[in-house]
């Protein structure tokens, strides 16, 4: 598992003497850092914290649903559990996860810059995230929240008897963290690229983050003002969204989904970016149709802004609007399919090795396919009538968010862990964990498609006994899934201190981030790199140490693929 | 923004640094457009559903005061542009003068806004328990700021509007929620802008801004113009549409 075994003659690998982790010590050097790599680790710690809080709520839900009448929680507590699960996972885990951890760490490295364009704003965004998180946590420990993660009015503004105001305020505040991250990425990608790093030499991870950032800066301000108005309505009794005062609750739903549907693309686009890095690396082949994959990210971001009302087919909008939104929803499947086909085409004829990140990439491909196609079912007006607000919807979006976004996140974390820490994770343990995750995930969520189709509504704390078998399967799957999450957390932490030394480019991969020591120095590169190669071009990169026999042109499988 | 105009570590050249800062400000303004866009949409939809109440609400605003404030803000944009121009052309002594004028005009705006808000408070037009759109019509002696002619006109219009919308008093509160929400948000942006202007003023009096390096003046200028443009939208939305002839 190292470059040593690849070349056979290289001396034992050593960590660089000076790198971003040991350049300074002490709490102050972390809390006041402007180094994008350290801020990424701050985010890693805090996002993981929220992930496990959200996971705890998920376990409560699944345990409660083990029996039809539910012995564990009261109906009211159950409402709070699924709401807080949703709020935590969406706003404090999924949306920040890949951009603020991997994006923060990698974008400057990938474009060949010393840091993001605005390092202080980057640190500020982390503090804003923490303050927002603190408000939401405060809501959770002082009565919780029972409105559903969608905060629909007038339930949230008038009738709910839970701590809505601090939670909404927390989400409102965290939004600004997201806006600042998006702004920072956009500007960095525009102005901080190294010489020779043209737009079409950018790694697709960067393209995906460009599209994500566009969604962040255009969508997030809208949810900010919407939640701001909803909070004012709850606290001061304004009436914008309250029908009793002449306001319009549907207006809230429109404004909410105008952000919250594109927010799905904030979650999935970065994961797609990760997959676009993993597949060429472990197939040792140029990505098929680079320009199309890059363009499809932008297309998803753009079309993603005009599909929001497909969440509202049954909440009293005009049929003609519903037809238009249904059509636009189908349209967004095209760029997603372009990506999926191009990844698959890249695999064709590649020399594939099954390292852990690649296992996650394969997991992503299958699960995203299921999640995406069931999305088309839901975008279809007639079927949506039948399965709206059932477990079918729950299963669909978990296939996208967990099967897609989280698989991409974990794949990326494994792939770049050697770059972030300088050390390798234990390969076999990681493969087993990836397998456990895949099995646990499918066992948890596939039965929910069946449940939903049979008519079990989401958000109910009890169900008819004939649904029990599927619910037992789902709960069993959830406990396997939990093992699948705890394992990587344990061994990645271990590997950061005791793993095998990784070296500069253990895979080998083609990006600029692999042309600097692992872990990188604080200033990223000793001299500003000059890019003279095309992206994912394994054939013309002798520096990678892959010997391509000129007469066949076929890439050999590197040694570590077999060890 | 850097005080001495030196190069920050993450950049290669001063030009790149300036381009980056400027792009950052433009993108920030895009997010601001979306931010105000949300509340303007909420206003427009509610205006559509509670048409009579919103038209009546517009009638109760003072056109002379609103118009005057529009002129004041446009003038402040001009002085701000002059401050930027002075910094770009090296007229170091003019920069603080134009900045001071901009700040003064900003405070004139605040003053007029204060008068308007106070009148609304006085005339029972704050959304809540004591809101009463007919307060002045019913108690003419207590609303000295409204001319008797206007009051008579208003009385007739309110009676007509109540016929069309019996819930006018409730719906008019929506209008006033929007009025205070939007103008309040705008005023908050102006307060932040005024703070930035004071900071520029201090630095410009120390002679910090030169034709080679004047990024902060340039960027605060962009921000100030943006806040002006928001008002250019708010003024017709709140004061002018469907006003009585």
Explained architecture:
The complex is a heterodimer of chains A (563) and B (245). Chain A is mostly helical and 563 residues long. The N terminus and C terminus of chain A are likely disordered. Chain A starts with a helix and ends in a 65-residue tail after the last helix. In chain A, 57% of the residues are buried. Chain B has 245 residues and is mostly helical. In chain B, helix 1 crosses helix 2, helix 1 runs antiparallel to helix 7 and helix 4 runs antiparallel to helix 7. The termini of chain B are far apart. Chain B has one domain: Four Helix Bundle (Hemerythrin (Met), subunit A). Chain B contains 8 helices and no strands.
Describe the biggest sheet of chain A? none
Please report the first level of CATH classification, the CATH class of chain B.
Mainly Alpha
Residue windows where pLDDT falls under 50 for at least 5 positions of chain A: 1-9, 559-563
- The structural domain count of chain B equals 1
**Approximate strand percentage of chain B:** under 5%
What's this, in brief?
The complex is a heterodimer of chains A (563) and B (245). Chain A is built from 16 helices and no strands. By secondary structure, chain A is mainly α.
Question: What keywords describe this structure?
Answer:
heterodimer; A: 563 residues; mainly alpha; disordered N terminus; disordered C terminus; B: 245 residues; Four Helix Bundle (Hemerythrin (Met), subunit A); 76% helix; 0% strand
Give the secondary structure arrangement, pairings included:
The complex is a heterodimer of chains A (563) and B (245).
Chain A: H1 3-7, H2 27-31, H3 36-64, H4 75-111, H5 119-141, H6 155-159, H7 164-191, H8 204-236, H9 249-283, H10 290-303, H11 319-347, H12 356-379, H13 381-387, H14 391-421, H15 427-454, H16 468-498
Helix pairs in contact in A: 3-4, 3-5, 3-16, 4-7, 4-8, 4-9, 4-14, 5-7, 7-8, 8-9, 8-10, 9-10, 9-11, 9-12, 9-14, 10-11, 11-12, 12-14, 12-15, 14-15, 14-16, 15-16
Chain B: H1 14-49, H2 51-59, H3 63-88, H4 94-122, H5 135-138, H6 148-164, H7 168-205, H8 215-240
Helix pairs in contact in B: 1-2, 1-7, 1-8, 2-6, 2-7, 3-4, 3-8, 4-7, 7-8
């Amino acid at each position: 598992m190292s470059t040593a075994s690849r070349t056979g003659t290289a001396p034992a690998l050593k960590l660089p003497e000076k790198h971003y982790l040991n350049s300074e010590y002490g709490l102050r050097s972390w809390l006041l850092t402007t180094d994008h790599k350290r801020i990424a680790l701050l985010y890693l710690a805090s996002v993981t914290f929220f992930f496990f809080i959200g996971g705890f709520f998920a376990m409560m839900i699944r345990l409660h649903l083990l029996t039809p009448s539910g012995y564990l929680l009261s109906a009211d507590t159950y409402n709070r559990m699924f709401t807080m699960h949703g709020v935590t996972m969406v706003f404090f885990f999924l949306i920040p996860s890949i951009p603020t951890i991997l994006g923060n760490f990698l974008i400057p490295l990938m474009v060949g810059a010393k840091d993001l364009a605005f390092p202080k704003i980057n640190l500020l965004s982390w503090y804003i995230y923490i303050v927002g998180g603190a408000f939401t946590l405060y809501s959770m420990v002082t009565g919780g929240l029972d409105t559903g993660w969608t905060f629909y009015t007038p339930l949230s503004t008038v009738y709910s008897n839970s701590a809505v105001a601090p939670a909404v305020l927390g989400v409102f505040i965290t939004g600004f963290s997201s806006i600042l991250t998006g702004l920072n990425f956009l500007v960095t990608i525009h102005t901080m690229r190294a010489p020779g790093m043209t737009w079409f030499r950018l790694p697709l991870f960067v393209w995906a983050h460009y599209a994500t950032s566009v969604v962040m800066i255009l969508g997030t301000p809208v949810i900010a003002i919407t939640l701001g108005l909803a909070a004012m309505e709850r606290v001061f009794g304004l009436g914008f969204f309250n029908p009793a005062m002449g306001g319009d609750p549907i207006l809230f739903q429109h404004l909410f989904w105008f952000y919250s549907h594109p927010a799905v693309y904030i979650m999935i686009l970065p994961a797609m970016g990760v997959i676009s890095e993993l597949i060429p690396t472990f197939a040792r082949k140029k990505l098929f149709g680079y320009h199309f994959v890059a363009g499809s990210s932008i297309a998803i971001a753009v079309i993603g802004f005009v599909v929001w009302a497909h969440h509202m087919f049954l909440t009293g909008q005009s049929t003609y609007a519903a037809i238009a939104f249904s059509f636009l929803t189908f349209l967004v499947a095209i760029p997603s399919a372009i990506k999926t086909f191009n990844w698959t085409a890249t695999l064709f004829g590649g020399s594939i090795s099954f390292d852990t990140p690649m296992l996650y990439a394969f997991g992503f491909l299958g699960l995203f396919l299921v999640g995406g196609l069931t999305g088309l079912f839901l975008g279809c007006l007639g079927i949506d009538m039948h399965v709206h607000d059932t477990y079918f919807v729950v299963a669909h979006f978990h296939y996208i968010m967990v099967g897609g976004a989280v698989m991409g996140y974990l794949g990326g974390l494994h792939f770049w862990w050697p770059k972030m820490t300088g050390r390798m994770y234990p390969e076999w343990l990681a493969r087993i964990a990836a397998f456990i995750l895949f099995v646990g995930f499918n066992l948890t969520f596939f039965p929910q498609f069946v449940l939903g189709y049979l008519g079990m509504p989401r958000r109910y704390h009890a169900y008819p006994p004939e649904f029990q078998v599927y619910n037992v399967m789902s709960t069993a799957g959830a406990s396997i899934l939990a093992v699948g999450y705890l394992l990587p957390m344990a061994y990645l932490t271990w590997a950061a201190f005791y793993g095998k030394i990784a070296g500069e480019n253990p895979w080998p991969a083609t990006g600029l981030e692999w042309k600097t020591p692992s872990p990188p120095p604080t200033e990223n590169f000793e001299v500003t790199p000059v890019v003279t190669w095309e992206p994912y071009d394994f054939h013309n990169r002798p520096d990678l140490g892959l010997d391509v026999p000129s007469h066949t042109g076929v890439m050999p499988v590197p040694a570590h693929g077999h060890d | 923004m850097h005080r001495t105009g030196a190069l920050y570590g993450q950049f290669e050249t001063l030009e790149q640094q300036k381009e980056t800062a400027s792009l950052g400000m433009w993108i920030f303004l895009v997010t601001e457009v979306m931010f105000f866009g949300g509340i303007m949409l909420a206003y427009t939809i509610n205006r559509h559903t509670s048409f009579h109440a919103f038209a009546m609400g517009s009638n109760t605003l003072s056109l002379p005061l609103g118009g005057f404030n529009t002129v004041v803000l446009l003038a402040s944009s001009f002085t701000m542009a002059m401050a930027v121009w002075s910094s770009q052309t090296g007229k170091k002594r003019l920069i603080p003068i134009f900045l001071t004028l901009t700040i003064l005009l900003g405070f004139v705006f605040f003053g007029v806004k204060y008068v308007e808000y106070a009148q609304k408070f006085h005339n029972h037009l704050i959304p809540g328990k004591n809101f009463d759109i007919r307060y002045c019509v019913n108690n003419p002696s207590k609303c000295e700021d409204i001319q008797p002619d206007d009051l008579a006109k208003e009385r007739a219009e309110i009676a007509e509007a109540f016929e069309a919308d019996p819930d006018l008093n409730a719906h008019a509160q929506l209008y006033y929620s929007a009025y205070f929400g939007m103008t309040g948000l705008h005023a908050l942006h102006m307060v932040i802008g005024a703070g930035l202007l004071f900071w520029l003023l201090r630095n410009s009096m120390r002679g910090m801004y030169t034709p080679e390096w004047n990024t902060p003046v340039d960027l605060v200028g962009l921000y100030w113009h943006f806040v002006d443009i928001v008002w250019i939208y708010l003024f017709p939305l709140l004061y002018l549409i469907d006003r009585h002839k």
